């Protein structure tokens, strides 16, 4: 067990992180995996794209997490008629003063839930993704820095594709992870049904982490060690998506159109550190990299039409990569 030289402050942070899960669980049944990945994004300054069918408590989980973290939260429902000004804000003329004033949009919060981002046109998507990248917004001639921490959590609906504007691959790449949200287990769904039928909802949650805690945890995550052999392993994994035949992945090569970008290796490094930290270690294990590999790479490996015809998914490719790409000595 590591972090021996660190203080009671680290132990306090570890305990608070556990409390985050228990507080969210007061409101949301299950979805620990989603909460874990949202915290990974928060602690590494990375945005998260969530995909799942309606009714899986994505919005409820994110809004509850914002309360537990005592962060400003804004939910933006993306629609085909949404304008960039509806997101970032605009200039409004004040008749009393005879001057234009800035009216800030909902983007000025700590946690942004961009609900059904694929239902908005390209200009709105670009405005959001620019704010994600630059951490600032320009309204008129004035540039405003966004408050820290700033985390965008977007949802995509995989069904009802009519009237949607799929995110271009280059823009999806800006998200640190793409997390698939699955159906609850039978036991979890039974608990959900009982809570709702007994009108047991609206639980109050306690604030667990402050902004200062989050920034301190980010510093601690940055200090998590990763060996040179594991750094090379990350590079090998990413390179195998670009040159699969060199790694004897001849079968998989026929399905890959484009391999993962350099953001994949950067985010594999960051996410594996966060996973190790939340597990109470100050060093990364190969299992940490493998645990986040799918979430980090499933939106960065672009498959061709042949893969679609053969019903081959990105998850299938990543699974084979993890089996066949050796860890460097």
Strand order of the largest sheet: 2-5-8-1-9
Return the string of H and E elements: HHEHEHEEEHEEEHEHHHHEHHEHH
- Helix fraction bin: 40-55%
Tally of separate helices: 14
CATH C-level of the largest domain:
Alpha Beta
The total of beta strands comes to 11
Given as residue ranges, the uncertain stretches (5+ residues, pLDDT < 50) are 1-5
Tell me what the CATH architecture of the largest domain is: 3-Layer(aba) Sandwich
- Under CATH, the topology of the largest domain can be stated as Rossmann fold
* CATH H-level homologous superfamily name of the largest domain: P-loop containing nucleotide triphosphate hydrolases
User: Based on CA inertia axes, which overall geometry fits?
Assistant: globular
What is the residue-mean pLDDT, rounded to a whole number? 84
């Amino acid at each position: 067990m590591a972090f021996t030289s660190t203080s009671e402050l680290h132990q306090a942070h570890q305990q608070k992180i556990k409390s985050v899960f228990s507080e969210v669980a007061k409101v949301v049944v299950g979805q620990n995996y989603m909460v874990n990945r949202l915290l990974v994004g928060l602690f590494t300054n990375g945005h998260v794209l969530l995909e799942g069918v309606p009714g899986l408590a994505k919005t409820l989980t994110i809004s509850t997490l914002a309360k537990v973290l005592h962060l400003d939260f804004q939910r933006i429902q993306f629609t085909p008629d949404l304008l960039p000004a509806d997101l970032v804000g605009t200039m409004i003329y004040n008749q009393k003063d005879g001057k234009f004033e800035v009216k800030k949009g909902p983007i000025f919060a700590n946690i942004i839930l961009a609900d059904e981002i694929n239902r908005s046109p390209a200009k709105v998507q670009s405005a959001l993704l620019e704010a994600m990248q630059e951490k600032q917004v320009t309204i008129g001639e004035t540039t405003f820095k966004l408050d820290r921490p700033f985390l965008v959590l977007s949802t995509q609906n995989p069904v009802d594709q009519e009237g949607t504007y799929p995110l271009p691959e280059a823009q999806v790449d800006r998200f640190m992870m793409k997390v698939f949200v699955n159906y609850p287990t039978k036991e979890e769904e039974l608990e959900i049904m009982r809570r709702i039928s007994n009108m047991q909802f609206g639980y109050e949650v306690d604030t667990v982490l402050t902004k200062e805690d989050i920034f301190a945890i980010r510093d601690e995550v940055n200090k998590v060690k990763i060996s040179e052999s594991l750094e090379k392993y990350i590079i090998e994994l990413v390179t195998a998506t670009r040159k699969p035949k060199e790694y004897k992945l001849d079968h998989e090569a026929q399905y890959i159109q484009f391999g993962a970008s350099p953001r994949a290796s950067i985010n594999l490094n960051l996410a594996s550190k966060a996973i190790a930290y939340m597990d109470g270690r100050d060093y990364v294990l190969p299992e940490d990299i493998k645990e986040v590999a799918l979430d980090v790479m499933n939106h960065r490996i672009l498959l061709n039409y042949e893969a679609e015809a053969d019903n081959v998914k990105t998850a299938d490719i990543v699974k084979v990569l993890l089996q066949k790409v050796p860890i460097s000595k």
